[in-house]
Amino acid sequence: MRVLFAGTPEAALPTLSALLESDHEVVGVLTRADARKGRGRALTPSPVARLAREAGLEVRTPATLKDPSAQEWIRSLEADAAVVVAYGRIVPPGLLAVPEHGWLNLHFSLLPAWRGAAPVQRAIIGGDEITGACVFQLEEGLDTGPVLGRLTETIGPRDTSGDLLERLAHRGAPLVLRALEDIAGHAAAPEPQDEALATLAPVLSSADGEIRWADPAQSIERRIRGVTPAPGAHTSLGAKRLRLGPVDLVPEVTDLLPGQIRAAKHEVLVGTGGCAVRLGRVAPAGRSWMDAAAWARGARLGAGALLGADAAGAR
């Protein structure tokens, strides 16, 4: 089949690579425009743009698919199907039927659960034990189209959203190829979604990564894993931000106030609304990641030191 591919981040690469290695012909690639990154703020192409250009594919980076020139280009490709993986742009209704077999989206949840931009993060934060990936047909609603294939994946107790997304991205690539084969062989059996079971996964902001130490310890532990690596978990010590890596629950320690720090030679415990948690790696403002115990030694914490805005109110 002639396939138009639309994707942007690292999570889209396994599917694009699988398509390039298959019998399908990738006739063009849509991705987000180059973005400024790093300390030098240099313009950097998306991971998909880099791979596509290395493969000699034509790449377009329209700011919106409502752009008439972008729509004309898409129509000129005469693609049989379009495949979307974390593209980050809305496909206008007028383009949905342009490829003969429509637009197929690889989504990293078990639809209709976690429709939206952050399904992997929300699944971990929500305490799900099982998630997965689906290939579904794009339609005008938000991730509402019929499902053409699905797989399940266990969420491990140490999984960050980065860990889980990487596994789903690699496992999802063959799922896309299978859906294309089913369509080509007239064997596809679209499964309508049950609207009564739908949940939403809106995009996460930096505010979603701020830790409220009065929350239950398990909720804090899941939130940190869910926002790692992006948008990242953080708290504050006085007026300075402290970034946080995943933590461990310490059920036997229950005598610390929310946000209260207990630093020893080899560990740093922090109180929550339940038991304490043990900090792992932390990054003070403007500094690199380090072991929490090393940070605490350098920070010269006073007796009764507290983390976070919630903790400040408990002084």
Automatic annotation (TrEMBL):
Q: Which InterPro entries match?
A: Fmt, Formyl_trans_C, Formyl_transf_N, Formyl_transf_N_sf, Formyl_transferase-like_C_sf, Met-tRNA-FMT_C, Met-tRNA-FMT_N
> Record's Gene3D superfamilies?
3.40.50.12230
Taxonomically, which superkingdom? Bacteria
SUPFAM superfamilies reported in the protein's UniProt record: FMT C-terminal domain-like (SSF50486), Formyltransferase (SSF53328)
Reactions that this protein is recorded to catalyse: L-methionyl-tRNA(fMet) + (6R)-10-formyltetrahydrofolate = N-formyl-L-methionyl-tRNA(fMet) + (6S)-5,6,7,8-tetrahydrofolate + H(+)
One protein family per Pfam: Formyl_trans_C
Q: Does the keyword Ion transport apply?
A: no
Quote the function comment for this protein.
Attaches a formyl group to the free amino group of methionyl-tRNA(fMet). The formyl group appears to play a dual role in the initiator identity of N-formylmethionyl-tRNA by promoting its recognition by IF2 and preventing the misappropriation of this tRNA by the elongation apparatus.
Which protein are we looking at? Methionyl-tRNA formyltransferase
Name of the gene encoding the protein in the UniProt record: fmt
